[in-house]
Amino acid sequence: MPGSVPPPPSLTDVAGDVVLHLGVSLSAAVGLTVALLAIPEDRGGVVAATVRTTVAVPAAAVVAVAAVVQFVGAGPAGVGAYVQAVVFATVVVGLLVLSRRASRWLGGGIAVLAAIAILTPLLPAPSSPIAVWMRSLLTGVHVLGAMFWVGGLVVLASAGLVTRRRGRRCEDGSFAERASRDWHQVWERFGVVALWAVGALIVSGAWLSWSHVGTPAQLLTTTYGRYLAFKLVLVVALVAAGSYNVRVLTPRVREARRRNDFRSAFHSAVEHFPAVVTAEACLAVAVFAIVPFLRGSARSEAGWAAARSFDLTVLVTGLVLVLLTGAALWAGSRKARR
What we know:
This protein is an all-alpha fold. It has one domain. Helix content is about 80%, strand content about 0%. The protein contains twelve helices and no strands. Helix 1 (about 10-35) packs across helix 3 (about 55-75), helix 1 (about 10-35) packs across helix 6 (about 130-170) and helix 2 (about 45-55) packs across helix 4. The relative contact order is 0.13. The mean pLDDT is about 85.
């Protein structure tokens, strides 16, 4: 017998969820960009300075709002809620300090704290069964993959648009050279981050989808399935755009730099790239807006029994999927660097 469909979330619930995930994603991406992706400012880096001075403070504001919404809406506050609030406050302070002072170590610390903040509510009780621990682990992997991927898209799109405006006003050829060099490195390194984030999403998403959807037909015949199908369409569009970046735009920048054609490199890296990534960022935020609608399960709506509990067969299947995905990503990353 078909089960009942959970009521849709309110607009407040959707907005709160989007602000929460966007806040931690922005802060993680700001920290990651300053710490690892961009050329350090003391070596002439353009991107790190742009991210620090234009994105860090807005990111801190979003995190502050997310912290208040999360704490107020969490109901009776437990230890986890207080821990998360303290971590959020530390992230806000760190972002404000980072906006005034360049520090790769501080950027890395902010990225780590953002991950801790979003993972804290997912931690199960120590006495929970293995199935609960595995669900929490895979959900955490899924959240982290989305956090670094989506956050990177939004932060780099914003910084890219700022650099593009500056480049149009600046006649200094050395700025075009420095900016194209820095952005080329950023896009290449973020491409690797996005590649592995997609891998994490594939592995964790496959298991989470299987636990909620019994057959492909349920993607069309149930409310949960239709929302999930719409989310998958957006994710596929994001992957396609990312593939275009890696296979077309990045080699174009590399070739222009090899010819010392810094104007062409600047055009591809700072004019064209951010336009594509801005479209990706909009799609990514739309994915965040869909997540609150994934309530209940397509299996229960269709009258199916719950998915089998975690056992040796599920473990072996998951390990095979991890190995296959890892091999595909390794091969793809090697080919992309050529």
